[in-house]
């Protein structure tokens, strides 16, 4: 990963998010730390999307970075393929933040697939009751 001790690879899943018939790779790093405007590091977690390119099977630079917003939420601890939840022809995914949400008791964020990959904003956020 891009940071030591970010736990890059803690969660991994494969699904075709852009409908091109090739499997794409999502990798979670729940301890990823973001540099804030006050130059302090904040542990927010991150998910990396690697779209499989045409013609060869080498995955290079991530196509999308999904970064958590809640301090110590552990965004990216688990990633699950959901199939085509909204029936638009593209597979969607869920990302867990087990210490996220208003109460810190857990949160699941749903990201919709599309022709360019995943949406950068969640379509749904499910908080633990």
UniProtKB/TrEMBL annotation:
SUPFAM superfamilies: Integrin alpha N-terminal domain (SSF69318)
Keyword Repeat annotated: yes
Entry-linked InterPro entries: FG-GAP, Int_alpha_beta-p, Integrin_alpha, Integrin_alpha_N
MF terms in GO: integrin binding
Main subcellular location: membrane
GO cellular component: external side of plasma membrane; integrin complex
Subcellular localization, as worded in the UniProt entry: Membrane
Coiled-coil spans in chain: none
Keywords: Cell adhesion, Glycoprotein, Integrin, Receptor, Repeat, Signal
Record family assignment: Belongs to the integrin alpha chain family.
Protein name, per record: Integrin, alpha 2b
């Amino acid at each position: 990963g891009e940071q030591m001790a970010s736990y890059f690879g803690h969660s991994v899943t494969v699904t075709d998010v852009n409908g091109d018939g090739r499997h794409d790779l999502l990798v979670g790093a729940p301890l990823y730390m973001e540099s804030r405007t006050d130059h302090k590091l904040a542990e927010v977690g991150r998910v990396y999307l690697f779209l499989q390119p045409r013609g060869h099977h080498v995955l290079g630079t991530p196509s999308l970075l999904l970064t958590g917003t809640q301090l110590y939420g552990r965004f990216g601890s688990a990633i699950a393929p959901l199939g085509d939840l909204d029936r638009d022809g593209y597979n969607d995914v869920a990302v867990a933040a087990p210490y996220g949400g208003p109460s810190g008791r857990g949160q699941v964020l749903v990201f919709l697939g599309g022709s360019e990959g995943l949406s950068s904003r969640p379509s749904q956020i499910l908080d633990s009751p």
